[in-house]
Amino acid sequence: MHTQKSSKSASRENANSNKSQSKSVNQLSNEVQDKRTKHLPGGLLNISNNFTSQDNEHNIENNKTEDVDNKIVLQYFKEIIRQQSYFRTQLWQIADDLRDMKNELMQQVRQRPNVNDQREESIFSFLHLPFNSVEDLEEHVEQFLNQPNNFETSVKEVSRVGGKNPYEFVKRNCTRLLTNELAEKYSWLGAKQKRKFCHLKLADLLIVSGQDSNSAYTTKVLEEAIQKWLRRAKERLNAEKKKEDKQRIEQEN
């Protein structure tokens, strides 16, 4: 019996000893951990916690930024859709306006009297230029220029030919309109039994066109230029014949 008590007493002492040793080990571990933490520079122990906190804050900021970006993009697309709708409406309106204008014009055309308007032509529209017969000049050209529209159109065309001076203006136009053979049959007042040029509608055309080309050209100056050009017709005609004879001789040889 004494032996059993001794054994129990020994067991209790061992248990207490183990507890005491375990407590001592835990205390020692805590002391070591405290010492390590105490000697770490700048509190490195909190770095991990700080990083975790910063990551969480960063994630929150990113989520907020993404939400803001999504809202901006959504507003942008809404604005695009709104503008597209506006422009589509405007295009429809323009199409309707154009359709109405077209219908109105077509109605005006249909209501216009069926009149064969005379075509406006210039004296340069004649197929056979320059004129080479009295009949062409005093009948066909006179009838043509007696039409107001034709005369006005011819004035525009003849005045565009231009020239450095009144004589050059007359020369450039008359050379296109009259052959020297026909011009030789005329003088301004019909002197030397020639035909009168001053009464022709072509004379009026040259004077009006000359003044339209240059307002400094007077009627008298232009009349004198026409007289001079007609007077030299025989001289030019002889020069042409000499040139033709020379060319013919060269071809024969």
TrEMBL record:
<feature type="region of interest" description="Disordered">
    <location>
        <begin position="1"/>
        <end position="33"/>
    </location>
</feature>
<feature type="compositionally biased region" description="Polar residues">
    <location>
        <begin position="1"/>
        <end position="13"/>
    </location>
</feature>
<feature type="compositionally biased region" description="Low complexity">
    <location>
        <begin position="14"/>
        <end position="30"/>
    </location>
</feature>
<protein>
    <recommendedName>
        <fullName>DUF4806 domain-containing protein</fullName>
    </recommendedName>
</protein>
